[in-house]
Amino acid sequence: MNYYELSNTVTPDTIGYKNGLWQKRYVQIYRVLTVVWSVLTLCLLFGMFHRDDYSSGMIKSCLLLFFAGIIFLVLMLIAVVNISAKRTENWSLQDRHDYNLAMYRTRYRNNRQLQSVVLIVMAKQQLLMSNYDLAAQALAMVDINCVKLPYLRDYYFCNAAVLFLCDKPGWQEWLDKCYAVPANQKQMTDMQIGALFLSENAKMDLCQAIYADTRIKHKWPTEIVVTAILVLYAGIFYGVGGLLSRGYHYRYWFELSSVLITYAGCMVLSLYWIIRWILFSDSVSKKSGGVRLFRKVILIVMWLCLMAAMVINLIISFIGMDTEKKAYANGLICMSTSDGYSTDEYYNIKVGPFLRRSLTFKETIKFGLINYDDSTDDSGNDAGDSGANDSESSTENNSQQFNNGSENTENENAGNENAGESLDTESKAVYDYMAAAGILSAGDAGTIRNGSTAKGTFYSVFETGEADGSTYENRLVYDRVSENGQCDLFVYEQLVSGSDTRLLGFYAVNKTTNEVFSADRNSWGGVSSREYQDATGEN
């Protein structure tokens, strides 16, 4: 029975054979990981479609995460194979042969072409171990119809070497067949092969030539591992960034370092792989020198265009990146944003070392960043009342810490009083919107009366009346500017004599067009309507 028959159950108890069996397991493990990653991506997509803040850009982020993970797994599988090949360099001939035998029986079991290549390699190793019969058995299992020309030349050469080393006739016929196959740049020429068989120490020279052919030096796949890690890092950074909930953003230091790492890594690795490709194509190409030169020029021009595009994109990213001016011990972060002409400041709160989020209205009151008339929020909302009270003491005690935020806010509200015409126009736009929607229906709704609270906050009275023996007053109170700076925000509330203030709604007015957007909620918590979120950039 041929030792290399797949039905042969003899399994060598060697390190090489055991490591060869693990190659099949590596492939199976990576297949399972690919399936798991695909299932997780599908679950992410399914959950994304049910989010209140869903947008079409999230699909791109999910696909980016999916392909980054797949590319990472493929590159790591290639790296594992190369690492295994590198480890075999210091093994004995028997261990290397048994390693290939395990690959032949398992991983390459259904691939006749790879099986034939491995059989030729094992035949050479058997020749070096003086197992000429086993070498002949390995060559007998080769399917020459599946072998490419370079390996076909090796196949004929090995058959000639087996007969020559056994002192059997017929080796010259196999050698003639070897000469009939053209050699590539890495193979011995016909003259060199002929000299091996005709030298005085022919058998020794022949074995040395075969040994040199089997001693292939492998490199550690460092560049493959680095590329895989960079692809996964970039996919997670940009993919997760597109899936963050509304109001959440990366911290400045993390965003800056990640952008630099991904762009610099892409530039360096792309140049490295282009050089590797040029060197590889030159070693195997049979094209003329002019064609090879033209191909090199095209690759270099493409790389330069890619680098120019990346540099431009990097500059744009830096220009549009909001910076952190100061981080406070209580978690507050002072941010600075610029459009190239003017610079604005706003506040966020940190969420761990990598994320920050926009402040809620209650948090702006809590940190003393705005003044809010607590006489307009006697609605039993204890959190709002305590927040307003805390803001006064916080502003008095920590005005220097927050860059005199309370005083600046008072000046801003005073400015709003001076610019009453703008707020008056916006309040009338809200009145028209509410009247068209049928919200205004009671009392003397045709009369609008403007005023300001004790703290200088603008308001407009839309309705007054009497119900259940108590008088009430429905008024629109100016709140603040939206996070994106495009809208003024208002709170619509009802003041009832002898009772708590009741919130009736929240509205945003575009500063430029005076278009009105309703939040469709009547409490400080909850999620605003989609059009309100799109207009203001917040919940």
TrEMBL record:
The keyword Membrane belongs to this UniProt entry's keyword annotation: yes
Composition-biased stretches (Polar residues): 392-402
Residue segments, region Disordered: 378-421
Source organism superkingdom: Bacteria
Low complexity compositional bias, start-end: 381-391, 403-421
Keyword rRNA-binding: no
Keywords per UniProt: Membrane, Transmembrane, Transmembrane helix
Ranges that cross the membrane: 29-51, 63-83, 224-244, 256-275, 296-320
Signal sequence bounds: none
Protein name: Uncharacterized protein
